[in-house]
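Just curious: can you write whichever protein you like plus the matching structure tokens?

***
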Amino acid sequence: MAGVNGDPAAETGGDSSETGVVVDGVGKTYDGEGDPVRALEEVSFGVEDGEFVCLVGPSGCGKTTLFRIIAGLADATDGEVRLGGLPVTGPTTDMGVVFQEYHLFPWLTVEENVGFGLDRSDRSAGERAARVDGMLELVGLSEFRESYPKSLSGGMKQRVAIARALAVDPTLLLMDEPFGAVDAQTREMLQRELLDVWGSTGKTVLFVTHDVAEAVTLADRIVVMAAEPGRVREVVDVDVDRPRERGDPAFGEHVARVRELIGAHR
């Protein structure tokens, strides 16, 4: 497990036997008409197999850029991301990605959306159907399998997106502000449901959020980033028993600590 500096070498030894996700010295520079802009600087941390880690930070800290690099959607200027010891060089079915926008196909039913990624797999038709059934049951949408996205609430659409991401049985579930577009009550419900799904599947989860209380609710550890350029300020262990209550003094102490780190300047 990473220390406050998030050094992945301390966790993995940097050899081919490493597991989980390792962000190793990642930097990103954008070239423009003026001087180059350094968006990320020496970002290093690890996420162990089965761990739930949240990534938070102030505006301009490069969370979205880092997310895209981890997901294989953008290249790093320096360093690399490894999943199960192998460098991430592009999108892979070993990662299930969930965005704030649901990105469901409006012309497909819930069942067809969940099974979309399986259509190009080598599973038999029976195996694909069974997998979709299991995912729909996992997220509580079995009775809506024939519905189309336009008839679903925002929370239900995001549950479809989560089921679709999990259907291909990825090693990592990578989530970027997935509950940012729903109301507060639905957000808390989805947080509880996500923890249930995580507990049931044992997946490794890396979850990007701007909501500190959400991070404390969900995470085993919180990677707190600093800005200009984006870098790891500290990795905070959330040593509060689940289920976590926001009225618990220990919960409030963790929220205050993370907010202090985000607001700090150095």
Q: What stands out?
A: The longest helix spans residues 184-201. The CA atoms of residues 226 and 266 lie 9 Å apart. The radius of gyration is 19 Å. The chain has a mean pLDDT of 90.
